[in-house]
Design a protein that fits this description.
Elements lengths: L19 H6 L27 E8 L16 H13 L5 E3 L8 E9 L6 H7 L4 E9 L11 E9 L13 E2 L6 H11 L1 E4 L14 E12 L2 E8 L6 H14 L4 H5 L19 E7 L3
Parallel strand pairs: 3-10, 5-6
Antiparallel strand pairs: 1-3, 1-4, 2-3, 5-9, 5-10, 7-8, 8-9
Length: 291
Amino acid sequence: MLDDEEPTPTAGDRPEPTTYDDWHRVARDQRVPTDPERPWLPPPRPAPPSGWTTRLLVEYDGSDFVGWAKQPGKRSVEAEFERVLTQILGECPRIIVGGRTDTGVHASGQIVAYDAEALAPYNLNALLPKDIAVLESTPARPGFDPRNEAIGRTYRYRVLTRRERSVHRRSTTLHFGRPLDLPAMQACAAALVGNHDFRAFTPTETLHTWFRRTVTEASWTPAGDELHFTVTADSFLRHMNRSLVGTMLDVGLGARRVEDFVSLLPGAPRKHAGWTAPSAGLSLERIDYPG
């Protein structure tokens, strides 16, 4: 296999799982669609034995976390919720998150569900660390799945464009104090709307088997001395937002043309795209659900 080729697993004769638990027992790199036009979609999650599911609206500063997902010996948002729920309830119920943010990525509109009765935000926040806050806690439909029922996720990337760096915004923006061609970057963002193969914007070594994503909104907008890239899609590949930002900043500098950026969208190899912007500027803003 050439260095710039993405491994392409084959589905073979493996049947698609029909139950929620069976679907999750299959490793991500084995969830290969038999129909190349349709990814595997998980069956609905059944109601938990407890009969309770709670939905939380959560925000956090991701600077000191390895991301949402827990990792041995490292600080994660998921591990903090497991610790607090165990402390209050005596055992840890099943926890599901709407968007698995990476190391250093923030959230202001994360959705978390757990299979137990609703607890007041005040009680949860009293035990959570200062860089996590529960904004809302409401009963949800038993079996509500914030990850697989989501129809859209919105992320925002903040770029500080002034020449001088900011002490107070160093963990929430990318300082990029060089002149940028905003109309060119806006043209790149406009080209993202639609269904495209985004394998050029995710690491070559990946567990993803489905690279097509549908972007419904994408824009660069000025906000004082910052530029904000806001994008909404059905879901995102690992590092996709940050790789998009790095490549569009290359266009803004004049190192690439808008046409070069557009040529990546049919599924170009990763090495043809640009650099991956740092995680500090990225935040999960909102997750949308039917209705």
